[in-house]
Amino acid sequence: MGKLDFIYKRRSVRNFLDADVPADDLREILKAAIYAPSGKNLQNWHFVVVKNKAKIAEMAQIVERKNAELAELLPSEEKRKAFRGMVAYHTVFKKAPVVILVYAGPYPTLATDLAEAKAAPLDLIHALARPNPGVQNIAAAMENLLLAAANLGYGTCWMTGPTYAAEEISKLVGFTKPGYYLAAMTPLGVPADDKGTNPPRKPLDEVVTFIE
Question: What residue stretches are annotated with the Nitroreductase domain (predicted)?
Answer without folding.
Answer: 7-189
